[in-house]
Fold:
Amino acid sequence: MSKKLSIIQLGNPILRQKAEFVEDIHSGSIQKLIDDLLVTVSDANGVGIAAPQVGVGYRIFIVASRPNLRYPYAPLMEPTAMINPLIVDHSDEIVKDWEGCLSVPGIRGLVPRFRAIAVEYTDRYGNLQKQEFTDFVARIFQHEYDHFEGLVFLDRIQSTFDIFTEDEYQKLIVDRL
Ligand code: ZN
Structure:
């Protein structure tokens, strides 16, 4: 049975550590971790989660873009586990948009990211996947990848004026819908 994991929050030193590459994707413990991360991100209305956020220092994240309460404008995609992901190329263009993080509750920020990226990752069945992502999904990928390097979105914010509370952010995006 997959179970919801507790999400560690900013200030916990595990969030500031570098994650390790996964060697045996087929192991029961890695497959179980993936199942648990899928349940955890869905339950939390997240659009992505990285293993370090549940206190596990492996290079595994879930990208699960879909419209929900926290991200009403997110595109819909099948939740996907990405193991040992890499950014192999990126656009010159950088765009700023809103991000939040399940490990940084109550805070949103405008974060600059590459608008488009080419990526490689191994899927949960052990197959190498090569894909290109743009805009919101590219943003999720870059945000989750940062968790492997011990970074959170606040580290990339250019001005403290770009930090909002969740309540003020919600007021702002109501006008955007
Ligand atoms: Zn995050």
The radius of gyration is 15 Å. The chain has a mean pLDDT of 95.
